[in-house]
Design a protein that fits this description.
Elements lengths: L1 E6 L10 E6 L6 E7 L5 E3 L25 H26 L12 H45 L2 H40 L3 H33 L24 H9 L17 H38 L3 H37 L17 H5 L4 H17 L4 H21 L8 H7 L1 H12 L4 H12 L25 H17 L17
Antiparallel strand pairs: 1-2, 2-3, 3-4
Subcellular location: Endoplasmic reticulum membrane
Membrane topology: Multi-pass membrane protein
GO cellular component, one term: endoplasmic reticulum membrane
Length: 529
């Protein structure tokens, strides 16, 4: 046997390889390929080890480096587009074009009551300014009296000063509370009895609730700042934020300061906010375009797809056909999910960023990555941060600070939030069903259920928690499209979202419907009311 080495440069870029021909006393020699390894030793190409060490499958739970699912996400996106395109074609063949520029008819009186209420509501915010301005003048006089008493060492006058302050602060608190409550009562009465169209009613009620929350925050914050101003603290135990020193009390009690807070994309009052140096008008134009496009998408989805589904669900509910109701709920889930996601982006990403850019408002963390939440507690602290900040600062933290156990404080906070949600849903639709309120109450045991999952190590705990998060129960009215199918929700994407829409739509049709007016099952309602 003869072995003859032959040098050859390969196209693969490996130089120094040798091709060796092995002859076995035959004119038809067969070529065998041998390569040099990293140590300069020769080895056969067809014999190098493929399975040289232990490895796990990429999708196994014990994989050292979990793979990216970018491709699967793209596949699911393509599948969703294809399936929804089929539904769009089927809907068009069945119902034709339902979207019209004229929209639904609005009673003439609705517009009059709407604009009156919309323009009247901010007046209560300026009433709060007048109350606080009077309190500031009184505080200045008492600070001057206290300094005089200290200089003359008049201890009796100092004690009398404290008693007067306590009684006066109670009067001021009563004035703030009466002003805020009166505003909300008037707005709720007007919306429930005088604004028939739920779309206009929802917008008016939402505006009233926002201004009410701002009035409360303005009163609470200035109360503490007023207390710190009047009761000087040489020891430094009562410390205000450092940034407040640029606009201390009572210098912040101005119409300019209040007007900025009125329009600022926050529900929490501060005398100063972090500010940007300039406005980016191209950024404003992009956010405005996003908002308009998404609003049109929501409008089309509601008018063309959700309304027929809701209309077809009336008989199923009237007859208590549970299978039919479940089928309608699941069928509506896709449209409600699209409307909700589009509404979330339009409000929190487009509208609030647009407003913040115009006002040079620098803190724009209006939401966190709630879609990755593995437990409901994380979701509630990241989904709607303007409301979360208000609840934490003015409701939860004061109760805990006064010694209430955190669990009880959380329950009270959720009950308060549930009342606000029912106010935003039931009042505009003229049906106080309690569905929105119960949706918030159910969050309490669900939080306790998902809390252990957030503490689990590994991927499975987070996966299970995220799945429970996406299928939990909580409803919320969409602020711009509360009529027909425009009762969208925050969570509960596949059951609660469409179920809440069906409940309030059925109640509306049973109370005000003109065509195909359903009757309440089991005599639960009065269709003639």
């Amino acid at each position: 046997m003869a072995v003859t080495p032959v040098n050859s440069n390969r196209a693969n870029g490996h130089t120094g390889e040798k091709e060796m021909t092995v002859s076995i006393n035959s004119s038809a020699a067969q070529p065998l390929h041998v390569t040099d390894n990293s140590h300069g030793e020769k080895q056969y190409k067809h014999t190098f080890a493929i399975h040289s060490h232990a490895r796990t499958s990429r999708l196994s739970s014990d994989a050292e480096h979990p793979p990216s699912f970018f491709g699967f996400r793209n596949l699911m996106g393509v599948g969703l587009v294809a399936s929804n395109l089929r539904l769009m074609i089927e809907n068009f063949k069945k119902y034709g074009l339902l979207v019209t520029l004229s929209g639904a008819q609005v009673r003439p009186g609705d517009w009059a009551h709407f604009w009156t209420l919309y323009l009247l509501t901010p007046c209560f915010l300026f009433v709060a300014y007048l109350v606080e301005a009077a309190a500031a003048r009184y505080a200045k006089s008492k600070v001057a009296e206290r300094k005089k008493a200290v200089d003359t060492k008049d201890t009796q006058r100092g004690e009398q000063h404290k008693r007067y302050l306590f009684s006066t602060w109670r009067v001021i608190a009563f004035c703030h509370g009466f002003n805020a409550t009166l505003m909300l009562v008037i707005a709720t009465y007007e919306v429930y009895y005088n604004i028939h169209k739920p779309g206009l009613a929802a917008f008016a009620e939402l505006h009233a609730v926002i201004v009410w929350l701002k009035v409360c925050s303005y009163a609470f914050t200035n109360r503490d700042m007023r207390h710190a101003y009047v009761n000087a603290d040489p020891g430094g135990t009562l410390v205000l934020p450092e940034m407040y020193k640029s606009c201390p009390y009572p210098n912040n009690i101005t119409l300019r300061n209040l007007s900025y807070f009125w329009w600022a994309p926050t529900l929490v009052y501060q005398p100063v906010y972090p500010m940007t140096d300039y406005r980016r008008w191209d950024f404003v134009a992009k956010r405005l375009l996003e908002f308009l496009i998404l609003s049109i998408v929501i409008w089309i989805a509601c008018a063309q797809y959700a309304v027929p589904l809701l209309q077809n669900s009336l008989d199923e509910i009237a007859n208590l056909n549970l299978i039919g109701i479940l089928e309608r709920v699941l069928k509506l889930s896709t449209i409600s999910l699209v409307c909700w996601l589009a509404g979330f982006f339009a409000l929190f990403q487009s509208a609030l960023n647009l407003l913040a850019e115009i006002l040079c408002f620098a803190d724009r963390e209006f939401y966190g990555d709630w879609w990755n939440s593995s437990d409901l507690r994380s979701y509630w602290t990241s989904w709607n941060k303007p409301v979360t900040h208000f609840m934490k600062r003015h409701i939860y933290a004061p109760m805990v600070g006064r010694g209430m156990p955190p669990m009880y404080a959380q329950i009270i906070t959720f009950l308060f939030s549930g009342l606000l949600h029912e106010l935003l849903v039931g009042v505009p639709t003229h049906n106080i069903l309690g569905v929105a309120f119960l949706g918030m109450v159910v969050q309490i045991p669900l939080i306790l259920l998902t809390d252990p999952l957030s503490r689990m190590t590994g991927h499975n705990g987070k996966l299970a928690g995220n799945l429970i998060f996406w299928m939990t129960v909580r409803t919320r009215v969409d602020t711009k499209h509360a009529w027909r199918s425009e009762l969208t929700v925050v969570q509960f994407c596949f059951l609660g979202q469409p179920f809440a829409a069906i409940c309030y739509f059925f109640a509306w049709q049973a109370k005000f419907g003109t065509h195909n007016r359903p009757e309440w099952p089991l005599g639960l309602g009065d269709p003639k009311s």
